């Protein structure tokens, strides 16, 4: 029997990817505005990659809006062959940087973008400097 070896980084990525699946599969990305029913949209690496360098507005429940720039999208490895057979899309991450240093909590935010519309996104702070946030899709 082959012993499975899992590095901490791979474990964390796989765990976050699983959490991202729970958040992102039901979020129904939409271009909804007041009075419109949300329409289902796929969330793909290509869709986000087309908007690197553009601004997104993040709004928390009862919070003030925070504008962030999408600074990077990155395709992620699938953790195992077994898992690869069951994935519906290739995992990827998106990273945002706030226009001003801000310390937002790990949370699900309503996100607005001029072309991508309005959708919910679970983001976590990353790195030692405030104002950098990441979301993982699997």
Strand order across the biggest sheet? 1-2-3-6-5-4
Most strands sheet: 6 strands, antiparallel, barrel
The CATH topology turns out to be Thrombin, subunit H
Termini separation: 29 Å
Alpha-beta content class: alpha+beta
Description:
By secondary structure, the protein is an alpha+beta fold. It has one domain: Thrombin, subunit H (Beta Barrel), CATH 2.40.10. It is 20% helix and 32% strand. The protein has three helices and six strands, in the order H-H-E-E-H-E-E-E-E. A six-stranded antiparallel β-barrel has the order 1-2-3-6-5-4. Strand 1 and strand 2 form a beta hairpin. The chain starts with 7 loop residues before the first helix and ends with a strand. The N terminus is likely disordered.
């Amino acid at each position: 029997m082959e012993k499975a070896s899992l590095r901490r980084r791979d474990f964390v990525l796989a765990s976050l990817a699983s959490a991202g699946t729970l958040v992102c599969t039901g979020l129904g990305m939409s271009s909804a505005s007041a009075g419109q029913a949300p329409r289902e949209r796929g969330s793909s690496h290509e869709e986000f990659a087309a908007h690197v360098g553009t601004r997104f507005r993040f709004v928390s429940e009862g919070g003030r809006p925070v504008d962030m720039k999408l600074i990077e999208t990155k395709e992620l490895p699938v953790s195992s062959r077994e898992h690869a057979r069951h994935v519906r899309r290739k995992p990827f991450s998106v990273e945002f940087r706030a226009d001003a240093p801000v310390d937002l909590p790990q949370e699900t935010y309503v996100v607005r973008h001029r072309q991508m519309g309005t959708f919910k996104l679970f983001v976590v702070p990353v790195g030692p400097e405030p104002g950098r946030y990441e979301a993982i899709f699997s």
